[in-house]
Amino acid sequence: MVMQISLVIFFTLHLSVTVVTSAKLTIINQCNYTVWPASSTSAGTAGNTGNATHTGFILKPGENSTITTSDKWSGRVWGRTLCTTDSATGNFSCVTGDCGSGKIACDNSGSRPLTLAEFSLNGSNNQDYYDVDLVDGYNVPMNIVPLNSSGKCNITGCPTDLNAVCPTELKAMNNGTLVGCQGPCAAFNLQVFCCAGSHSTPETCEPSVYANIFKKACPTAYSYPYDDSTSTFSCPATDYHVVFCPANSTSLNPVDQVGSSVSVGESLIAGSGTTRWLSTSGDFAFGFYQLPDELFLLAIWYEKIQTDAIIWYANGDNPAQKGSRLVLNDSSGLVLTNPQGLELWRSNFTSGSVSKGMMNDDGNFQLQDENSGAIWDSFSHPTDTLVPNQVMELNGNLSSRQGAFNFSRGRFKLHLQEDGNLVLNLINLPSNYSYDPYYSSDTNSDAKNQTNVGQRLIFDRSGLLYIEKKGGDNISISNQNGTFSTDNFYYKATINYDGVFTIAFYPKDPKRGQSWVIAKTIPENICLYSTFTDGEGVCGFNSICTLTNDQRPNCTCPDGYSLIDSNNMYAGCIPNFQVICQAGGNWGSQDDMYTMKELPNTDWPKSDYEIISPSSLQECKESCLQDCLCVLVSFNQSSCWKKKLPLSYGRNDQVVKGISVMKLMKNDPFSSISNQKKDHETLIIVISVLLGSSMLVIVTLLGAMFFGFPYNRKKIKSCRTNKNVVDNNLRNFSFKEIVEATSNFREELGRGSCSVVYKGTIEMMVDVAVKKLDKLLQDSDKEFQTEMSVIGQTHHRNLVRLLGYCNEGQHRILVYELMSNGTLASFLFTSLKPNWNQRFQIVLGIARGLVYLHEGCCTQIIHCDIKPQNILLDDHYNARISDFGLAKLLLINQSHTETGIRGTKGYVAPDWFRSAPITAKVDTYSFGVLLLEIICCRKNVEKEFVNEEQGILTDWAYDCYKTKRLDNLLENDNEVGNDMMSLEKLVMIVIWCIQEDPSLRPTMKEVLLMLEGIVEVVVPRSPYLYGSVSCN
Fold it and tell me: pLDDT of 955-1003, one tens digit each?
C-alpha cells in the first residue's frame, strides 16, 4: 500500500508523550447499502503505542458503532463493501477493502481500492492530525467530522460519488459492475504515479492528471503522496465521527459538477434556435450538426473547434431534414423523428427507465436512471472516433465514414478482436465482409504466455492510447509522451474514410494554433501496405496511391483511365478503352493499336498473372504488346511481371523499386461513345423507394415523362451518329468459320427453348461460346439486325461480351466470350452452399448489369428472362448476364399483346398476364425472385417439399417475414444466420421487387442503391392481392 511519505514524517515529528487520553471514533453509515467498517493500527510509527477496539464489524443503513482508541493511536479506518460469507467454508470476504483475514475482524490493511480515514491522535501539544486519503483509490463516500467544542476544526473527506468521474482506465469492475476507482499507482505501477525511485521527492513527484481529477471532485482529500499542504488537518484532541455517505453528498454529486443535465421531455429542433445541449465547460455539444447539404446529423462534437469536430454520430446513413425533432423520454430515451413524425433513430437499452440525460465534460452523453446510473451512453456505441477517458472492450469496433461529409458506413474498420488483437480491416460494402488486416498490434492469444493477450483499448485522460494486456502491462499505440497535456489540448483518435487511423490534438489556446496536429498515423504509409489478400485496396481498382505530406493517401488515375465517380477519388478508375482479345476484323497489329508508357517507382503488386525471368525491359514490353490480356508490366532486376485488369493496390513511392510500363491504345474507336455517354448521364435518380403512395407514384412518373423523354430522344440520336463505330465493334463470321471453330458443332454446352450453345475456338486459341438460334420469328432477319446493332454498343463488366455474329442465309449465330465457371444455377443449387460473400457479390453484379441495360444503353434493353441459367460466372466468379437482347427489343410502353409472353415460369412478372404496358419493371420482378434464390440457395418453385407452403419460395418468404421467422428460410446456413438484420433487409428488398403492382416496384437503380446501403429500405407492403400461406 502506498504510504503518504511526508504525512508519516509529519506525524513522527509531532508525536511526543504529553497527555495520556483516549479518543472515540463513531462510525456512521448513511449509505443506502450495508458497509463493513474496519480499522488497522499503523506499525512502526514513532510514538504509536495504542490500539483500537473493534477492528471489523457490520453497519446496515442508518446504523452506527464506536471504536475506542488507546493512548497515542495512529491508524486507519475504512469501509468494506459487497461482503459475503461462504456457506461451505465460513470464509468471510469483501469485493472492496477486504483485509484478507477470512473473518469480519481485521488484522491487516484493506485491499485497494478503498477510501481511507487516517488518524494520528494525541500528538505534540495535545494535537490530533487527520486526513481522508484517495491515494489508494476510492470505494465509498466518506467524511471525518471533528467533535471539538470550539467548532474551529475542519471537516474533511470525499463526500462525492467519485466513481461517476473515475477515468475508465482506473475503474475497478466486478462482474461488469463498477465497484470503485483505483489510484493511478495501483493501476499502472509507475514511479511517476507512486512517487518512487527517481520521483521519490516532492520536487520530482508532481500531481498527475488523475490526481487533479480526484482533487477537483474532493478538494480536501489526499490526491497524491505529497499532497500534505491542502489535505492534512489538525485539531486539539477530541472525538470524531467517520461518516459513510455523508448527508451533504447529494449536493456535491460530481455528475452535477462535470456534466449538464437534460430533463425528460426536453427536445431539440433541427434548424431552429435550440439545436444542441452543452456540457458544463462548453467543450462538448450534443445535438443537430448542420451539414453542407442543409441536412442535419445527430452528433456530439467539440463545440469550440470549427473543423473536423465531430466525435460521435447517430444517423450517418440517414441525415435529418430541417425541422426534425429529438426528444428525451423516459421509456425510449432519445428518439429522432423527421418533420412528418417518422422515426429515424432511437437509443436502445435493455432495461430501466430514463430519469435524465447528461452531457458530460469528457464528451460522453449518458442516459441515467433515478439512481444516476447510466443505462445508455455514447461511449459504449462509438462510431469512428475515440476521445480521452473512452475505452473499447473486446470485439469493439470503430467504422469509418464514406467521405468528409458523407457519414454513411465506410470501407474501413478498427477492431479489437476476441483474441485480443487490434487490427485495421478493409471492408466489402455492403456485405460487411472483412478482408485480411492491413495492420495488427500482435497482441492476440499467446499459448505460452496468456498475459500478453490484449483485453481493452484505452484512451486515457493524459492523451495516451494503449492496449491493456491481461497481465497488467500496456502496449502503447500512440508515441506521444505526454508533453501535450489534455489540460491544454483536445484529443481524438479516428479511423478516417481513407483507411488511416490517426491520433490528433488541437490547442485550447488559440494563440498556439487553430488546427488539428497529427501525432500518430497507423499505418505510417498506407499506400505501401499490400498485405491485403483481396479487395480493391485503399484507392479502388486501377488507380495509383501516393502519400501526401500529412501521411494520407491521394488517389489518381493513370493515363488512359478515368475516375468511376468524379466526386470520390477512392472509388477507383475505369479504362477509357476496350481491351480487344479476338483476332480478325480490321484492327491491325498490336503495335499499331497500342503504345507503352513508363511509370517509374510505380507498381500494382496484386495483379500478376505471369512472370518472365530473365527478361530485358524491351522483351518485357514486347511480351505485353503481343498479349491481349496484358494491360501493364512491372520490370525490376531482369524480371518481368505481366498484369491484367483489374489492377489493385497501385502505389507510387520512392521505395518502390523498378518501373511499370502501361499499355495504352493509340486511337481508341470507342472513346467518342464513352465521352458522349458521360455527357448524357441520367439527369434524375429517384433516391427514395416508391412507398405505396399513389401521389408519389404520379409525381415520379410525370417527372420521368417531363425530363426523360427528351433525354432519350437526344441519347438515341447521339448513338446513331456513331453507327459506323458500332458496326466495327463486332466481327461478322462466315458460316464456314463457325463450323471450323466448333469442329462442326461437336461439343454442346447447353440447350434452351430457342437455341443450342456449343464450345468453339477462334484465332489466337481463344475459347468462345457459340449460340445457334434455331426457332426464329417470321421477321427474324430484321429483328436479328436490330439486336446486333444494339448489342454491339453494350459494354459492361457484368454482361457477357458478344464478340461477333453470323448472319448468312438461314443461319443466325452469336459468338460470345466463354465463361469458365458455368451458370449461376449450377453454382447455386448444390448440396454445398457457396460462401455468403461470394453470393452477395454476385447479387451486386447482376443488379449493376441490369441498371446498365435499363439506363446505360443507347436503346433501353429489357431482358425479360432473368433467371439463374442466364447468369454466367467468369474466372473470378463475377456475375455476367447473358441472353440480353434475344427477346425482341421492347421500347418503353410497348404492350405484351404485340410481343407475346417472354420469360420462364417462376420468374415471369404478372404484368405479362394483364392488359398493361411491359416496362423494365418486369426485370425488377425477376431479379427479386433470383435474389431470394441466392439467399436461400434453392429454386423458387420446388414441388418435393413435404410442407406445401414451402413449395413456392416467394410466398413462403413473405409470410416468414410477416411472422418474424426468417430463420426458417435458412437451412444450415450459419453464415447468413449470424446477421439477421442484413437478412431482413434483403428480404424486404425482395418483397418490394415482387410487388404485383409494377408501379410499386423500385427501378433497378433504386434496388442497387438499397443493396449498397445508400438508400434506406423501408417496411414493404404486402406484394399480393389475396394473402399467402403461413410460415411454420
Answer: 888 888 888 888 888 776 777 777 788 889 999 999 999 998 888 899 9
3-state secondary structure of 44: coil
Q: What percent of the chain has pLDDT over 90?
A: 35
**Burial grade of 36 (CB within 10 A; 0-12, 13-18, 19 or more):** buried
CA 409 remoteness from chain centre: 6
Same fold, 253-379 and 382-524: yes
Give the DSSP letter string of 308-323: S-EEEES-TTSPBPTT
85-111 pLDDT, tens digit each: 888 899 999 999 999 999 999 888 899
Q: Residue 788, Cα to own-chain centre: how many angstroms?
A: 46
CATH of 544-668, one of 3.30.870.10, 3.50.4.10, 3.40.50.720, 3.40.50.1100: 3.50.4.10
Of 239, 384, 627, 865, the active-site residue reads: 865
The architecture that CATH gives domain 729-817 is 2-Layer Sandwich (3.30)
What topology is assigned to 824-1011 in CATH? Answer: Transferase(Phosphotransferase); domain 1 (1.10.510)
- Pick from 222, 209, 155: nearest CA to 6: 222
Taking only Cα atoms into account, the Rg of the chain, rounded to an integer number of angstroms, comes to 37
**Residues 756-780: pLDDT tens digits?**
899 999 876 778 999 988 766 555 5
Sequence-separated (6 or more) residues with CB below 8 Å from residue 986 = 931, 935, 1011
Q: For the structural domain made of 382-524, what CATH number should be given?
A: 2.90.10.10
Q: Which residues are CB-contacts of 24 (< 8 A; sequence separation ≥ 6)?
A: 66, 67, 68, 69, 239, 240
Least confident stretch, 158-162, 931-935, 945-949, 1018-1022: 945-949
What is the phi-psi region of residue 126: left when phi exceeds 0, alpha when psi lies from -120 to 50, beta otherwise?
left
Domain regions of the chain by residue span: 5-160+219-251, 253-379, 382-524, 544-668, 680-726, 729-817, 824-1011
Strand partners, 505: 491, 517
Rounded to an integer, what distance in angstroms lies between the CA atom of residue 150 and that of residue 235? 10
Asked if 912 and 887 touch (Cβ cutoff 8 Å), the reply is: no
Helical H runs in 514-603?
590-593
Place of cell 449450377: 826
DSSP-derived secondary structure for 908-972? S-GGGGSSSEE-THHHHHHHHHHHHHHHHTS-SB-TT-SSGGGSBHHHHHHHHHHTT-GGGG-SS
Q: Which fold has domain 5-160+219-251?
A: Thaumatin (2.60.110)
Out of 248-257, 269-278, 537-546, which region has the weakest mean confidence (pLDDT)? 248-257
d(CA 365, CA 807): 72
- Which band of pLDDT confidence, cut at 50, 70 and 90, is reported for residue 2? very low
| pLDDT score of 533 | 52
Which amino acid belongs to residue 788?
M
Name the more confident of 912 and 864: 864
Strand ranges, E, within 136-189: 142-146, 156-158, 171-174, 177-181
Active site residue 161: no
